[in-house]
Design goal:
Elements (H helix, E strand, L loop, with lengths): L2 H12 L5 H8 L3 H13 L28 H11 L14
Helix pairs in contact: 2-3
InterPro entries: ArsR-like_HTH, AsnC-type_HTH_dom, DeoR_HTH, Tscrpt_reg_AsnC-like, Tscrpt_reg_HTH_AsnC-type_CS, WH-like_DNA-bd_sf, WH_DNA-bd_sf
Pfam family, one: HTH_24
Keywords: DNA-binding, Transcription, Transcription regulation
Length: 96
């Protein structure tokens, strides 16, 4: 990996939607050069994948609840309608 590869990676880290043509223009090289280098970076595993990071909806939190265990199935069902993960366990709290 040389300085040019590092430049390509830096640009892709900042904006993975850049086209090969845009990267080539920024680095003053041909589009073919960029295409070949990105292919090599993918083939050697230096670049593993291009991915999308989305904005999380809501907040992350861990909430411990004490509930009447006679109604636990209904409570869990209702909580699952509003929350991504609900876990039942025993101890000082019954749900997380």
């Amino acid at each position: 990996m040389d300085e040019r590869d590092h430049q390509i990676i830096k640009l892709l880290e900042e904006n993975s939607r850049l086209s090969n043509t845009e990267i080539a223009r920024m680095l003053n090289v041909s589009e073919g050069t960029i295409r070949k280098r990105i292919k090599r970076l993918l083939d050697t595993g230096i670049i593993e994948k291009f991915s999308l990071i989305t904005r999380k909806e809501g907040q992350d939190a861990i909430i411990l609840l004490r509930i009447d265990t006679r109604d636990s199935k209904l409570t869990i069902k209702k909580l699952n309608e509003r929350f991504r993960d609900v876990y039942e366990f025993s101890g000082k709290a019954d749900l997380a």
